[in-house]
Each structure stands twice: as structure tokens, then as C-alpha cells.
Amino acid sequence: MTKKTKLIKKTSKTFLLTGLVLTILSTAVLYFYTKYLLQQEIEEELYSIEARIVDAIKDKKELFSLPPITEIYKVEKLKPQIFKDTLIYDPAQKEMEVFREFTTYETINNQIYQITVRDLVVENDQILIAIVASTITIFVSAFLFLFYFNTARNIKLWSPFFKNLEHMKRFSLTSNQTIELEDSDVLEFSELNNEIKTLTNKVRTDYENLKQFTENVSHEMQTPLAIIQAKIDNIINDNSISDKQFEEITSIQKDIQRLKILNQKITLLTKVDNNQFDKVESVNLINLISMKLQSFKELSANNIVFNYKEELVVSMDVDLADILINNLISNAIKYNSRKEDILIVANNKSIIISNAGNAELLNPEKLFLRFYTETNNKQSIGLGLTIVKKICDLYNFNITYYFKEQKHFFELTFK
């Protein structure tokens, strides 16, 4: 998954990187361009000295060399002029210094002269370094000022967006309040606000319609199912039916009962999805499990062992807590493959329920999906664990399954 970065941080990082690259490039360009200009200036000075020497020779003035600044020799043939840097010992500084050297050959009064002039470039390098250093200082100072000014400006500019983002995070379909958004003088933000309001209003309307439809369907199904159940009871109580008819009608009665349970569970899932269980109070799950076990002992032949050392109190809807514990224990009883004890272990942070099993599930990741089952039990509704997962998600609980030592384990962890 790509690492997420805050918008202001990302834009600031881009600004920093861009500024750094521009500073490096501009400093390099300035360095070489200034160096080129200084070198051109030295070479012009060397040309000027050489021209004076040529004029002096033409006027037959007395000349003498002053090594290493100027050197004048008579030679036999002409050669190309040369510019180069050379190291010469400076007795004043007592160290080697860099000189720019210009050597040229001139024919004056039918005599060929080699004229060499040199100029010290050390001072020029120091000027170059000073110029680059001052330029970098100015660049960095201006860049830092622009960076903080730009960051402050961006924070102010994006402030409506961030505030609206917080409003959207707190938006709830179950609330009748219209989402309130911060107005902005930025055209794009204003258009975004209008689209968000339109979208949220449409989503709320669709949600209310779907909720009403689900409730109506659930309510309308209860009445015909109850009527059919009553008529079948009357037929069964009639002594005129045959044994075969009795078996078929009994089978129909069981299917009707299954439809009623299915309708109740789907209605419950819908209510959980719609956050209709908004009453939250402290529930002692230890007491709730103990009460449930009394009821299960009367209905089931399985022996259930309950071990706990501490109280376990969570904040949730009481009815959903009852459904959560009931479904987990019912699931353990239904799929307990051997006549072994069902074990429930609880502490102040978790509940673990285990039952005997023949083999590990083939697709444990699908265990909490609607209507999923790995058994051949056609009477299984397939919604019990789905309801458990929905309740856990609603209250930010964690439900996990694992198989160990020929047993199925469901661990419910509370944060």
C-alpha cells in the first residue's frame, strides 16, 4: 500500500526539492559564468600588456624582461599564441601561486620576438568564492522566507478544504442534520462543496428509501408467514390426513419456520448496518454468559465449561450483546463434532469459545460472509457469524477464528 502524506507536507516537500535543485543549478551556473568573466578580464589585461610591449619594441625603446611577469626573447620562427595556467613560486607569499600565462610571437623590424606575459589569478579566485558564497546566502535566505510564507499561505488557502473534510468524516446517514460546509472564495472549493451537498442529500434520500423498503418488506412478510403457519397447524391437527401428507406438511412447517428466522436475521443485519442500535450502556458479559448457559443447558445435551477470573464490562447495546453471545455459543453447540466439552474462557479483555472439530475449515477467510457454510447442513441459515462480525465492526471489537489441536476457536477481543 502506498504511504499516505499530508497535502501541506507534500506540497512543501515539492517546494523544498524544487528550490534545492534550482539553488544548486543556479549556483553552478553563476560559479562557471563568473569564472569565465574573470578569466576573460585577465586575458584582456594580458592582451593589453602584450600590445604595449609590441609598441615599445617598434619604437626601439630599451626593453628588459621582468620574470615571471614579462619575458621577451628573440627567436628564429613564429609559433601559435598560447593561453594557459601555470604554477610559479611567489617569494612574497613563500608558496606556489597560479598565474594566467599568454605567449605570443610577433615579427617586429624584421625580427621575430617571443613575448610572454603573466598575471596572478589567486585574488580572482578569492573574489569568485566570495561572489558565489554571498549569492548562495541570498538565495537560501530568500528561499527560506518564500518557503515559510508559501506554507503559511497554503495552510490558509486550504483551510476550508480541511475543515470540510472533518465535517465529512463526522457525516452520518442516520442523522437528520444537513452537512455544514465551510464557504470558500476559491471557485474549485465552492464547486466541490455544491457537489458534496448534492451527493450527501441523494445518499441520505436513497438510504431512507432503502431503509423504509426493508422495514416494509420485513413487516409485510411476518403476517402471511404467520397465517400460513396457523393454517398448517390446523391441517396437522386434522385427523383426516395421511402419514405421507403429515410428513410433507411437517416439512413445509419447518421451511416456514426457517423463513421466519431468516427474515428476522436479515432485519437484524439491516438494523445493524443502519446503526439503529444507538443505545449504549455498560454490559457485564460475564453475567450475560452465565445467564445464557442456564438456558442452553435446558435446550442442549452439550456440556459447556465456563472459566473466568475477572469481570468483563463493555459499552454496547444490551440487545446486541445478547445476540452476540447467543450466536457464538449456538455456533459452538451446532458444530461440536464430538461429545466433548465446549469451553468458554474469559478475562477482562477477551472471550475465547472452543468446540471439537474434525478438520480445519477450507476457507476460514469466508467464514463471516453471508450464507457461507462448509457443511452439508441444508437447514443452516448462514447468517449467525455474519451478524457477529457486523456487531464487532459496529463497536470496533475484533473477532478471529483459528483451528488448533482438533478444535475450532473463536476469539473475541475488546479494545
Question: How would you describe what is shown here?
Answer:
GO terms for molecular function: phosphorelay sensor kinase activity. There is one protein chain. With 415 residues, the protein is of the alpha+beta class. The chain has three domains: 7-144, no CATH class; 187-273, Methane Monooxygenase Hydroxylase, Chain G, domain 1 (Up-down Bundle), CATH 1.20.58; 281-413, 2-Layer Sandwich (Heat Shock Protein 90). 54% of the residues lie in helices and 19% in strands. The chain has seven helices and eleven strands. It has helices spanning 7-58, 122-169, 187-237, 243-273, 285-299, 318-334, 384-395; strands spanning 70-75, 82-90, 95-108, 111-120, 281-284, 304-308, 313-316, 342-346, 350-356, 398-404, 407-413. It has a five-stranded mixed beta sheet. It has a four-stranded antiparallel beta sheet with strand order 1-4-3-2. The radius of gyration is 46 Å and the shape is elongated. The chain starts with 6 loop residues before the first helix and ends with a strand.
Q: Report the radius of gyration as a whole number of Å.
A: 46 Å
What percentage of the residues does DSSP assign to strands (E)? 15-25%
User: Tell me, what's the shape?
Assistant: elongated
Main sheet: which strands, in order across?
A: 6-8-9-11-10
Total number of β-strand segments?
Answer: 11
Largest sheet data: 5 strands, mixed
The parts where pLDDT drops under 50 for at least 5 residues are none
Number of domains: 3
Structural class call reads alpha+beta
Separation of the first and last Cα atoms? 25 Å
Tell me the number of helical segments per DSSP (H or I, 4 or more residues long).
7
How would you state the average pLDDT, rounded? 81
* Portion in helices: 40-55%
Tell me the series of helices and strands, N- to C-terminal. HEEEEHHHEHEEHEEHEE
